[in-house]
Structures are given as C-alpha cells and as structure tokens.
Specification:
With 723 residues, this protein is an alpha/beta fold. It has 24 helices and 24 strands. An eight-stranded mixed beta sheet has the order 8-9-5-4-1-3-2-10. The longest helix is centred in the first third of the chain and has 18 residues.
C-alpha cells in the first residue's frame, strides 16, 4: 500500500519478512494468557512501520500525515517516522496488555539496553515476586546482532542482579544481508548471526520466515521457555529483503544473484494463501477479499488492529503520570535545606552497624571520621556530604539508584555505601536501614561496560522520574565509550521525541597528572550539545554544593539530565570541605563568589574558573598575598548563570583585567563554548584573557613533570605573576 501511495519514500519495508506480524501477534496474545501485563519493545527500522500499524494499533492516518510531512510541532526538532515510539493497550486472552515501543535512533542495537532499563523500572513497581508480568521483546537485524558489541554487553547483563529483567524474547529479522554487505564472508566470523547468544546458553530457534505455521509454533515454544525459566531466548527468523536496504536502493547492483532469485520468489502471503486453498481451508477469492478489506481500512485511515483499545485510560501501576514534570521553567524555585535535627538523625542511622560487624581498618577510619563530622568536630568531606544527600532524599520519600564500575565503594575510596565484614565477607548497606518504611536504595558495581550500562540507566530514568538515577563513570574519560547514548538519547531525546529524563551522570574530572585517559570527562563535548535548556552541566567544588545539587535534581519538578564534572583529588582536599550548617541552610549556587575579601573595591584583577583549579589558584594567591585578585567559581556552566554572574561582577567596580582560567587545553574544556557568554557579561570595557594549557590533540600530557610545569604556568598566568 505504501509502495503505491508514497513512491520512492523510505520506509524500510517488511516485504520478505511478513511472518514477523503473526509472530508478534501470537507473542502478545500468548503473553497475555500467561499473565503478562506490560510489554516493552525495541526494534530498528526494518518493518517498524508495519509493527506500529498492525500490532500496536497506530492509526494509518497518523502515519500518512508523517509521510506527507505534516510535522508534530510539540517537539522541537522531531524525528523521522521509522524512529518513532508508540504505546497502546491490546486485548488478549488473559486481559489487557499495555504495549510500549521505545523510540530508537539509527544506531540499531543501542535500543536494547534502553528497553531493559525501562523494563527493570516497571518490574520494580510490581514487586520482586511479580517480575514476570513485564516482558521485554527486542527485534534485531542479523548483521547488527552479529556486529555490534552492545548486543554482547546486553546479554551479559541478563543474569546480573543489578540489571536482570528475568528473560527477554529476542527476534532476529535475518534478511541475510547488511545494507550491501554479504551475510557470511564479510559480516561475521561465526556460522550463525545469533551465535553471540550462546554466551548465556540461550536457546536459539532458526525458523523459515516463509512458513508462517512453523513461525507460530516456534513463537509459542520461545515464549513458554521465557515464562518457565525466566531466561533469554532467541528466534532467528530467516527471511530476505525484497526491495533492498530502502525503497530507493537498487540491491541488484551489489547482489545480482541473490536478487535474481528474490524477484522470482512468491511472497509469504501468496505461498500461504496457495497452501490454504490447496487444503480447502479458504476459497480462491478469500485471500483477495481479505486484502481488499484491509486496503479499505487504510484508505479510510482507520485502525487495522481490532484488538487495540484507543483512548483507554492507563491503569494504576502501569505508567507514571508525567504531567507534574511538564511545563516548568528552568528557574523554578525549590527548597533543598534540611533541618539540623534531621541531619543528626540521618547521621546516626548511617553509623549503625550490626553487632560484631568488623570493618577494614581503613574503612573504620572513614566511619570514625564521619562520626566526628556528624558531631561537628571535623568539617564535612565529600563522601559524607554525598551520603547525607542520599539519606535526606530517602527520608523525604525519594528512591535512589546508583550504578557504575566500582560505585559501591567508589573508585577513589570515598563512598563506602556498601560495607564488608572482614570476618565473613557479608555486606551491609546503611542507606537501606534508615527506617522500616523507607524507599528503595540500591547501588551496584556494574559490568565493565559504559555504552550498555548508560543506555540501561537512561531507559530506567525515562520510566521512573521519582527515583534519583545515577550513572557513575570509573573515570570521566571513559564516558566517550558511550558517546552514542549521550548524542542520540540524553541530550536530544526531549527535542526529538518529547522524552523527559532526570538521569544524573557523575564523571570524575580534573587534572592531577594522571595522563591522557584519566583526566578529562570531555566537558567541551557536553557544552557543545547544550541548547534550549536540554541538559544541566555542573562542576561543583564543595560537598555542600554536591549535597544541594543532588537534592535539587529531585525536589524541583523538572526532569533534565544532570551532567556532573565530579571530583577526584577534591574528595580528600583539606579545603574542599563544608560545614553541617551549609548543608542545613542555603542552596546550590551556580556562581560562588569570593569568600575571603572584605574590600572588593580594591580588586583590579578578576579570575573566573570552574572546578578543582580554583584550589590551586587560591593556594597560590594566598601564598603570594595578592590583595588585588579575586576568584569567582562558575559551578554551573549550563544553563549559563547570566544574571548571577552579572550581579557578582557588579561588586568589583575597579576591575581592569578579567581572566578565564582552566586546566584543560585551550581547544577543550569550557573556553570555546563559554567565551562569548563571558565576554557579553563583562562588557566591552574589559578584554577577556585566557589562562590555561595550549591546544592539544590529547586531553592531557602523560609526563608528571610536564604536567606540574604546565599547571604552575597556567596558575601564574591567571594571577598575573611572572613565569
């Protein structure tokens, strides 16, 4: 129908794999009969429009509007029709089943961990004993299934306590070619495209897509296996592509022999109709009449899915109502303060350990210091401030989920959210025992993956807005392994698809002489992606700032991704500390003004900076007793704090020199993305001076001595000292 109505337009047709539609219909019906209440699906382009119309019940009239380029203006940029998601409710023999098709970019298999994160969030709403009520289904392409590493990463998640979704039905649309790449000699080194699934012992069923009854039988077996054993299962639907990669393509140019056969091959519908006629199940004109009835519905733009319930209200427990998070301006006020009485109570709860629990001596010292911090005998360090932020959110009814490599202890030995008994190895999580009826707190050491785990947490956060969902990189540098998740989902998901997301990324960032792969979270890349208040980028320098920032992320009725240039050396820096009063009072400050200067009219040189370099500047300024230099910290780089920075600059009427100081090379960090904003704020009367490392192709140098020389030089340059 589309081939005749919208000639030459891309649709990534299902022709050649028509049996996918009865497969999906049977899978949903049988799932409903087995007690499934929700199904979350992910798939790439091939056949997506057919699944949306024939399975989920999207109105053909809506799809035709997309073909005719009548854009949905509610989204800033929108997306092509074969990336769109959808949700509906379908009648099954077991009752209504809620279907959700995830939005998906052109990066094919990346949607799989997103689906699994969403499923995990939904399963937790039902409770630990009802996980089978939520079913993930992921439809793959054969070349992508064999070729993309995120597939292996996602399979590796399937049995892990922090990520398991108790079994997924995988369907591989095996059209035996990848765009123009031959299916065996160039696309994989294994016999089957599905061999990667053997790593978890998943049953793999290879079935002929031109035999619909065999497809239905295998579908039943696969679903029953998943429901019985709560493990992954794979259906390899062996088929072909009738029109090439897309409808404007000419596949015979590169696969002449294959497409000589394809063009003489009857369709699966034709073959099955002939079989039914031969068996006297249908009359010769029945198939044609069924096709005409279907075309009539399409002509009318009406639903072709009789099982779908349009306009049916969403049942409680099935989905979160996101309306309370829509329509708020960026500057909406929120109160992140916590009373001293509450902090005292939470601190006491964090110190409680089971009888006979023996800590490692170094951990015991951390816990003893935290007892002193709670009593006011020591200032609050980063680890304790972060723990109190989590505890205070739990106290106010907000669940917390943290995952990442080494997140339980913290890569830099600062968190210790999970404590281990040195006698028997048993663990204890104080944040899970603050109150009998408290919300869920979980922290998981992830598998050694960035791409799949970050995509998983994105899927979780887009499904569960009431949970503080945090992904922490082992080092901020490693986030570039998950760049596709950042580009295609985190920073653009709202503009393309209207998907809100409150995911928080903690990316350890700072130049301590640890070389090119352990210094930079690539701040410049995030700032380049900032537009329209799509994300938040913060670089906090005190525990109090971290405390209020994390609380603000959940207390504000605003769900935007939060990107944090998290500290490393500041975790134990003697000056990067706060008081309990700073936690109890105040708020997150996008700009931190000068703390030590009484007479600001004497200041002639103003140094603006962000992050840990502030403490190097402070130490050098104090050592040199520079009374005419003030230091300002920009703690939130986006959305840029125009008003706050202007107000702070107004306190320095005698300034003649304004400097931007950064640790990162000149072509990296915040300089290029922020320079024009700073220049607009300071005005034409002052030229903005750059003080930092010279441009470099790598994020940092690898030699300690050279690092120290560069750091000393940029600090001296910023303060106006001779080299």
């Amino acid at each position: 129908y589309l081939h005749s109505k919208y000639v030459g337009q891309k649709r990534f047709s299902l022709e050649g794999v028509e049996s996918l539609i009865p497969l999906m219909s049977e899978l949903i019906d049988r799932s409903g009969a087995r007690g499934v209440k929700e199904i979350v699906m992910g798939m790439s382009h091939r056949g997506r429009l057919n699944v949306l119309i024939n399975i989920l019940g999207k109105l053909p009239s809506e799809l035709f509007s997309e073909f005719e380029d009548l854009h949905d203006r509610q989204h800033l940029s929108g997306d092509v029709k074969y990336h769109q998601g959808f949700s509906s409710k379908i009648r099954t023999p077991g009752g209504l089943v809620h279907l959700a098709m995830a939005f998906n970019p052109s990066h094919l298999e990346i949607v799989s961990p997103v689906v699994h994160g969403s499923v995990r969030a939904r399963q937790q709403r039902y409770g630990e004993h009802e996980t089978s009520k939520i079913l993930p289904i992921v439809i793959h392409g054969d070349s992508a299934f064999a070729g993309q590493g995120v597939v292996m990463e996602t399979f590796n998640m399937s049995g892990l306590r922090g990520y398991s979704t108790h079994g997924t039905v995988h369907v591989v649309v095996n059209n035996q070619i990848g765009f123009t790449t031959s299916h065996v000699k160039d696309s994989r080194s294994t016999l089957y495209c599905t061999d990667v699934a053997k790593m978890v012992g998943a049953p793999i069923f290879h079935v002929n897509g031109d035999d619909p009854e065999a497809v239905i039988f295998i579908t039943q077996v696969a679903l029953d296996y998943r429901m019985q054993f709560k493990k992954d299962v794979v259906i390899d639907l062996v088929c072909y592509r009738r029109h090439g990669h897309n409808e404007a393509d000419e596949p015979a140019a590169t696969q002449p022999m294959m497409y000589r056969d394809v063009r003489t091959l009857p369709t699966a519908r034709t073959l099955y109709a002939q079989r039914l006629e031969e068996e006297n199940i249908i009359s010769p004109d029945t198939a044609e009449q069924m096709q005409q009835n279907y075309r009539d519905l399409l002509d009318a733009g009406s639903s072709v899915t009789p099982k779908v319930l349009l306009g049916e209200p969403v049942a409680p427990g099935v989905a979160v109502n996101w309306k309370s998070y829509v329509g708020h301006g960026w500057h909406i006020a929120c109160d992140t303060t916590v009373s001293m009485e509450t902090l005292d109570m939470l601190s006491a709860g964090l110190q409680q350990l089971p009888a006979g629990f023996e800590l490692h001596p170094r951990v015991a010292k951390v816990m003893e210091d935290r007892r002193k911090m709670a009593a006011g005998a020591l200032p609050v360090d980063w680890g304790f401030g972060e723990s109190l932020a989590h505890a205070s959110l739990l106290h106010h009814g907000c669940p917390v989920r943290i995952s990442g490599q080494d997140s339980e202890r913290g890569t830099f030995f600062h968190r210790h959210a999970v404590l281990y008994n040195q006698v028997d190895g048993e663990n204890y999580v104080p944040l899970q025992h603050l109150a009998d009826d408290q919300p869920r707190f979980v922290v998981y050491n992830s598998l050694l993956s960035e791409e799949a785990v970050l995509a998983y947490e994105y899927g979780y956060a887009t499904t569960e807005p009431e949970t503080l969902t945090i992904w922490e990189a082992q080092y901020g540098d490693f986030v570039n392994v998950a760049q596709v998740v950042i580009d295609q989902f985190i920073t653009s998901g709202e503009a393309k698809w209207g998907r809100l997301c409150g995911l928080t990324l903690l990316l350890p960032h700072g130049y301590e002489g640890q070389g090119p792969e352990h210094s930079s979270a690539r701040l410049e890349r995030f700032l380049q992606l900032c537009v329209g208040h799509n994300i938040q980028v913060c670089n906090p320098t005190t525990p109090a700032q971290m405390f209020h920032m994390l609380r603000r992320q959940m207390i504000r009725p605003l769900r935007k991704p939060l990107i944090v240039m998290a500290p490393k050396s500041l975790l134990r820096h003697k000056q990067a500390v706060s008081t309990l009063e700073e936690l109890s009072q105040g708020c997150f400050q996008a700009v931190l003004g000068e703390q030590q200067i009484a007479d600001r009219t004497r200041i002639t040189r103003l140094v603006l900076c962000s992050g840990r370099v502030y403490y190097d500047l402070l130490e050098k300024r104090d050592a040199q007793d520079l009374a005419d230099v003030a230091l300002l910290r920009i703690e939130q780089l986006y959305p840029f704090p125009w008003r706050l920075l202007r107000r702070e600059l107004a306190h320095y009427p005698a300034v003649t020199e304004v400097v931007w100081c950064q640790e990162e090379p000149q072509n990296q960090g915040a300089w290029y993305a922020t320079r024009h904003k700073l220049e607009e704020v300071i005005g034409d009367e002052n030229k903005l001076i750059y003080a930092g490392r010279e441009a470099l192709s790598a994020p940092a140098v690898g030699y300690t001595r050279l690092h120290v020389e560069q750091q000393k030089a940029l600090v001296n340059s910023a303060l106006g000292l001779e080299q």
